[in-house]
Design brief:
The chain is α/β, with parallel strands linked by helices. The chain contains 14 helices and 23 strands. It has helices at about 10-30, 65-70, 85-95, 130-135, 225-240, 265-270, 275-300, 320-325, 340-345, 375-380, 390-395, 405-410, 510-525, 540-545; strands spanning about 35-40, 75, 80, 110, 140-145, 165-170, 180-185, 185-190, 190-195, 200, 245-250, 310-315, 345, 350, 365, 370, 420-425, 435-445, 445-450, 460, 485, 495, 535. It has a 10-stranded mixed β-sheet, with helices on both faces. A 4-stranded antiparallel β-sheet has the order 17-18-19-22, with helices on one face. Strand 7 and strand 8 (about 185-190) form a beta hairpin. Helix 5 (about 225-240) packs parallel to helix 7. It is globular and about 65 Å long. Residues about 1-30 have low confidence and may be disordered.
Length: about 550
């Protein structure tokens, strides 16, 4: 028989297993996907945040964003498209604009000859990032601007993977009345609510008929500024969320996009600014900052912050057209929204949250990044393959997204992205339809721009504004400052944007070999573009709005 030694070996076994158990638990913790809170500002200029101003500057007041940059990581070379809808299509689908959409057409268009891409925004058969995250068990919520398609049920946020949405379909709407456009000379509202119990016009949120920028407190009428309505929804989502389930919250702010409207309390803060457009824009920026602060405060008070990746950036540069009537400013960068100079496509950005490692806090990340890279980055964080099989089956372009996770976490010291393909269009009007064009390319330090041939190779807004622009003494009109950027070095536009981020020193004639190599890259990418005809305004959109949706925009085609 076996004689007992009288020694209990279980404690020794437990001790031996502890290091292994610790590693397993550590791996499990690392494998737990973070909550992702993605805040997208609209038309926020490079100079319209405090962290891009002089330390003693009082013209711009964004303390919460300043703090988030200081305690997080600034995304210093993050690139988007030059206008709203293409950037948003890129974000949702993980594609460069040339492979999904470069047009900023209205969502009421359709082309009956193309039932996949013959609409505004994202083609029917592309998979949205929320759908990818949903496969990993994420609850996915959207709040705010959509602007990536409205025509069919396939363009609805529900079909793109979101579990709820409160927002608007168009590029913009009125902050007080939610109106955007007309049908038969009647104003049409644009605000939609989708959740487990409702999917239709958000009529319950309609303000009183007298409510507006010049009448913000009409007696006996509800009067809630739209951004406050949106952020209230965000806060409610965060407060009610089951923290054991990963959350993807996409908050696409209306601020600071036109129209220039803001509650009076914010406007009063900037009474020292004499130019009314700059005063309104900076008040809107201050409110935007406060709304971001509310989101952060709620994340912290609910305990969600500890396992959250917070991402904030703009969809394009600030709008400087019309001699400053839009109030935006991208100084000292060149140009702005609608232009492929840096002021139009290089955007303010930051990451923060408990997910961010301490070693990355306070850093300025200078590697190349594109807004379409978040698709693969989020997918990998969730343990999902970002490959879009549905799009491949329909013959649509694959994703261009690159996983930035190891760069953001500090595991890699350089960004894996080496090239940015810049989209453009032959459309003559800012919100018109046209052919998809490659308007330039960034490779490392170098940037080559080529204008559209049908526009005589001109690229608008080759100018810098100033730190206090617009102002009452300036008559500067950016559209009067185009630059010829053709396919020859003599009239080319080649810049070292690391040494010369303001695009002042044209190197096209000094570096003809670099010019030729990058032009060849542009021509190669041009062969891959996705260029459907989006169609024209469809009368069915107005008919459906006025007969079925009680004067609100919504899906209209089958």
């Amino acid at each position: 028989s076996t004689q007992s030694t009288g020694i209990d070996t279980s404690a020794d076994m437990h001790a031996a297993l502890l290091p292994t158990l610790a590693l397993v638990l550590c791996d499990m913790a690392l494998a737990t996907p973070p909550h992702i809170v993605y805040i997208l500002a609209d038309d926020l200029g490079w100079a319209d945040v405090g962290f891009h101003r002089a330390p003693n500057d009082t013209d711009v007041i964004t303390p919460r964003l300043n703090q988030l940059v200081a305690s997080g990581a600034e995304l210093d070379r993050l690139y988007a498209h030059k206008i709203c809808s293409p950037s948003r299509c890129s974000i949702q689908t993980g594609r460069a604009p040339i492979h999904v959409n470069v047009q900023n057409v209205s969502p009421d268009v359709s082309n009956p000859k193309d039932n996949i891409g013959g609409f505004q925004g994202i083609p029917r058969n592309m998979t949205g990032v929320a759908k990818v995250l949903g496969r990993a068990g994420y609850t996915c919520r959207a709040v705010g601007k959509w602007d990536v398609g409205m025509a069919t049920e396939d363009h609805h946020p529900r079909a793109r993977g979101f579990d709820s949405w409160l927002g608007y379909w168009h590029h913009s709407n009125d902050y007080w009345q939610a109106t955007e456009g007309k049908c038969s000379f009647k104003n049409v509202r644009d605000l939609w609510e989708y959740n487990s119990t409702h999917d239709g016009p958000a009529e319950r949120f309609a303000n009183g008929a007298s409510c507006g920028q010049s009448n913000q407190s009409p007696q006996g009428e509800a009067c809630v500024f739209e951004e406050e309505r949106l952020v209230d929804t965000v806060v409610s989502i965060l407060q009610q969320h089951n923290q054991s389930v990963p959350l993807f919250l996409f908050y696409a702010m209306h601020l600071v996009h036109m129209p220039l409207q803001v509650p009076q309390q914010y406007l009063d803060t900037f009474s020292f600014i004499s130019d009314k457009h700059r005063r309104l824009n900076h008040a809107m920026g201050n409110m935007m900052d406060s709304m971001v602060g509310r989101v952060v405060d709620t994340l912290e008070s609910t305990g969600l912050w500890a396992n959250t990746l917070l991402l904030f950036h703009s969809d394009n540069g600030g709008e400087i057209l019309g001699g400053g009537v839009c109030g935006g400013n991208n100084w000292p960068l060149t140009g702005g929204k609608f232009s492929n100079f840096e002021g139009g496509i290089r955007v303010n950005g930051l990451v923060n949250g408990g997910w961010l490692r301490d070693g990355m806090r306070g850093k300025k990340l200078t590697g190349l990044m594109a807004v379409w890279d978040w698709y693969a980055t989020f997918a990998r964080l969730a343990g999902q393959d970002p490959t879009d099989q549905e799009a491949a089956a329909a013959g649509l372009p694959p994703i261009d997204s690159i996983d930035l996770g190891r760069y953001l976490s500090g595991e890699e010291s350089e960004s894996p992205r080496r090239e940015i393909v810049i989209g453009d269009t032959s459309a003559e009007l800012p919100n018109g339809d046209g052919d998809t064009l490659v308007g330039g390319v960034i490779q490392g330090d170098m940037k080559l721009l080529v204008g559209a041939k049908n526009k005589f190779w001109r690229i608008d807004q080759y100018l810098q504004t100033g730190p206090s622009w617009p102002n009452t003494s300036s008559s500067l009109d950016p559209l009067l400052h185009p630059k010829l950027c053709s396919r020859t070095p003599e009239h080319g536009c080649l810049f070292n944007i690391t040494a010369d981020p303001y695009e002042r020193a044209n190197l096209a004639t000094a570096q003809p070999e670099t010019f030729a190599r990058m032009l060849e890259a542009i021509d190669m990418h041009q062969k891959t573009v996705y260029s459907p005809s989006r169609g024209k305004a469809d009368a069915a959109a107005c008919k459906r709005a006025m007969t079925q949706y009680d004067g609100y925009w919504g899906p209209f085609a089958s």
